[in-house]
Amino acid sequence: MLLIINDSNNAYYNLAAEEYLIDNFDEDIVMLWRNDNTVVVGKNQNTIEEIDSRYVEEHGVSVVRRLTGGGAVFHDMGNVNYTVIQSYQEGLFSNYAYFTETVRDFLQGLGVNATLSGRNDLMINGKKFSGNAQCVRKGRMMHHGTLMFSSDVKDISGALTPNQKKTESKGVKSVQSHVTNISSHMEQPADMDTEQFMQRLYDYYLRHYPEAVSYELSQSDKSAIQKLADEKYATWEWNYGASPAFAVSVSRKYDFGLVDVRLNVKRGRIEDVRIFGDYFGIRSISEIEKLLAGTEYRADAIKQALTGIVLDDYISGMTVQELADLLSRTV
Fold it and tell me: What distance in Å separates the CA atoms of residue 68 and residue 201, rounded to the nearest whole number?
């Protein structure tokens, strides 16, 4: 077994590292790592539905899609992630008790009674501190999970609370639950920080598995991971474009009138849009609707598509920024 502490805090690099290790190593692997402020969405989720777009933008939160299913989670530097990779064996997929046993034993040694609850969560006194997910790829299996040690709960709430709009999606929506930090339940030592916690967990794996050896990512490993991060995990196409098809119905009352928007989004692009309302305009709104077809479903792309358009001719009193925010549900 190879034990890795990945010291990168870049979410795109770290998610790429998981895929790289699955595809290029035959050994069993345990990797510990942390992301700076990041929302990580499940493989089958609609990214737009899972985040507060305005909060994410204003607070510089990264958004990245992972290889595994399940719901969206928030990572910060107070959270430690663990990844276990091994050969796939019949009966291991969805066996969360098996993959979380080492973590639960480790926490027991710190005076923390962690229990597996429901499908894939670890809880302390009925509050969640760890979400876990799995995938099988090329004969290999990956299990990974979060370990909230001292995360900022208000950031979790802010980033993972999308605006309440009328949205129907074929994706899997996250279920929000009460959360807690491991540090709040420890007996000793009370002054342990997140880095020390991660090192203690690493040492526990090293002691618990006699065959385990420390492994440091080589420069060749790091270069390949960075290439995968740049070409896949940091791209809009992967993080937003891979979302399932969904429909949006959103309206807002402005001083100049009501604007009611209905649109369909497929693979992260506006497939078709209709704009209704009691507003006034001298030109047909159908020209705007046709112009927006095929545009990426994000405010800046919508603004770019409307460059040079005098929107006041179509919806008297409305700015391009206002329409872009309404269409992308950032209002």
Answer: 23
pLDDT at 101: 96
In this prediction, residues 96-107 reach a mean pLDDT of 96
Contact yes or no for 71/146 (Cβ under 8 A): no
**What is the distance between the alpha carbons of residues 174 and 46, in angstroms, rounded to a whole number?**
10
User: Over the chain, what is the mean pLDDT?
Assistant: 89
Q: For residue range 41-74, what is the model confidence (pLDDT) as tens digits?
A: 988 888 887 888 888 888 899 999 999 988 889 9
Strands 29-33 and 166-169, bridge-based pairing: unpaired
Query: Residue 193, CB half-sphere, CA atoms under 13 Å: how many?
Result: 2
CA dihedral for 128, 200, 203, 220, sign (positive or negative):
positive
Closest CA to 130 of 155, 110, 154, 101: 101
What distance in Å separates the CA atoms of residue 85 and residue 97, rounded to the nearest whole number? Answer: 16
Report yes or no: 132 and 9 within 8 Å, Cβ to Cβ. Answer: no
